[in-house]
């Protein structure tokens, strides 16, 4: 292993820079030359890369985003795209490629491996935490805290005005951010894709829950945390629907891309640092076709396909306590 390349792909996530830093420092430590490709898989198609020195990763561990930039790349998904990427990697004399991204990026890794003989290792980097085989993904913990900071603030004003708020968080297909932010903010209701596998939540049930809260507690604040995509038209349309059904004002708040930014929290920096350094060691040991993850504080090597061919499950105990034990409205409690 003489020359190792790395790129960040898909939605950026806080901690990607910490992973880049770990890979670059470990590469230099083990006498391997690191190349950084920019703009995800686009960089492979455009030969947009440069050598990374230790000074390139100085002072980035605390920064959100990714110094290599990230992107989605449709042309890469074709046979011609992957063949071009393979040719370019060979031309740049790259022996191994580390891809930091989500499950889509890992599918891209598999696609590339059909045309390129070099070693490929994935590092789970996405705020969604929807990658099977690792307890957490780089960026997830920061996204929860970012969402929480906003939800706590909304609660203050909701409490003062005794209002109903629907707060939309990220996670198109996965409710990890929604569940964690809901539990940690003491939300009265959480709407997550995993809870409604066969369709939409019943708006009448949701309206009844709000009405019952007010019957038990009197006029009061009420927070519903919902994953994006759970309702057509999102929080705005659902707020309108529930306002019509309850006759009570319901306000939407869409947190959006703020959840992707910011300085990574310590857990994300730690995870990224471990996974990044280990990925280099695994490369040098000749490993390929794997994702490096962490389970029960142990580093694990997971075949890339396993990272997406099985859905990662929400913590069932957390779901249970949120929906049963903590549902004071359903339990008829006025606190
Ligand atoms: N089935 C596939 N075959 C080949 N390449 C793919 C495939 N799926 C995704 N990719 C490549 O990976 C890129 C990133 O994938 P995607 O947009 O799904 O993000 P991701 O890595 O899942 O991250 P996140 O979920 O955090 O946004 C795509 O733009 C595409 O270039
Ligand atoms: O920024 P984009 O391309 O609209 O992607 C948004 C999606 O990316 C994610 O932030 C994951 O990175 C999802 O939670 C969200 O649905």
UniProtKB/TrEMBL annotation:
Pathway(s) the chain acts in: Carbohydrate degradation; glycolysis; D-glyceraldehyde 3-phosphate and glycerone phosphate from D-glucose: step 3/4
EC number: 2.7.1.11
Transport keyword on record: no
Catalytic activity: beta-D-fructose 6-phosphate + ATP = beta-D-fructose 1,6-bisphosphate + ADP + H(+)
Family under the similarity heading: Belongs to the phosphofructokinase type A (PFKA) family.
PANTHER family per UniProt: ATP-DEPENDENT 6-PHOSPHOFRUCTOKINASE, PHOSPHOFRUCTOKINASE
Name of the protein: 6-phosphofructokinase
Organism: Lacimicrobium alkaliphilum
């Amino acid at each position: 292993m003489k020359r190792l390349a790395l790129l960040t792909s898909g939605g950026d996530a806080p901690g990607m820079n910490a992973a880049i830093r770990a890979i670059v420092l470990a590469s230099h430590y083990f006498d391997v030359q690191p190349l950084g490709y920019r703009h995800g898989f686009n960089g492979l198609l455009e030969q947009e890369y440069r050598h990374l020195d230790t000074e390139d990763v100085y002072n980035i561990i605390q920064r959100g985003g990714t110094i290599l930039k990230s992107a989605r790349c449709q042309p890469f998904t074709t046979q011609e795209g992957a063949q071009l990427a393979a040719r370019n990697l060979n031309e740049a004399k790259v022996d191994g490629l580390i891809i930091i991204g989500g499950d889509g990026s890992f599918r891209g890794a598999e696609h590339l491996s059909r045309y390129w003989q070099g070693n490929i290792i994935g590092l789970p980097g996405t705020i969604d935490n929807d990658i099977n085989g690792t307890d957490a993904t780089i960026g997830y913990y920061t996204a929860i805290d970012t969402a929480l900071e906003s939800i706590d603030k909304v609660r203050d004003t909701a409490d003062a005005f005794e209002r109903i708020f629907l707060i939309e968080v990220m996670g198109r297909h996965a409710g990890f951010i929604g569940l964690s932010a809901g539990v940690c903010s003491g939300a009265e209701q959480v709407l997550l894709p995993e809870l409604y596998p066969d369709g939409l939540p019943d708006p009448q049930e949701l309206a009844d829950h709000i009405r019952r809260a007010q019957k038990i507690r009197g006029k009061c604040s009420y927070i519903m945390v919902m994953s994006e995509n759970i309702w057509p038209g999102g929080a705005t349309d659902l707020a309108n629907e529930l306002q019509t059904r309850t006759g009570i004002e319901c306000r939407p708040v869409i947190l959006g891309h703020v959840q992707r930014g910011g300085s990574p929290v310590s857990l994300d920096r730690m995870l990224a640092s471990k996974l990044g350094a280990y990925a280099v060691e695994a490369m040098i040991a000749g490993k390929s076709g794997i994702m490096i993850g962490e389970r029960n504080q142990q580093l694990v090597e997971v075949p890339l396909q396993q990272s997406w061919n099985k859905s990662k499950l929400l913590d069932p105990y957390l779901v249970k306590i949120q929906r049963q034990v903590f549902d004071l409205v359903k339990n008829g409690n006025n606190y």
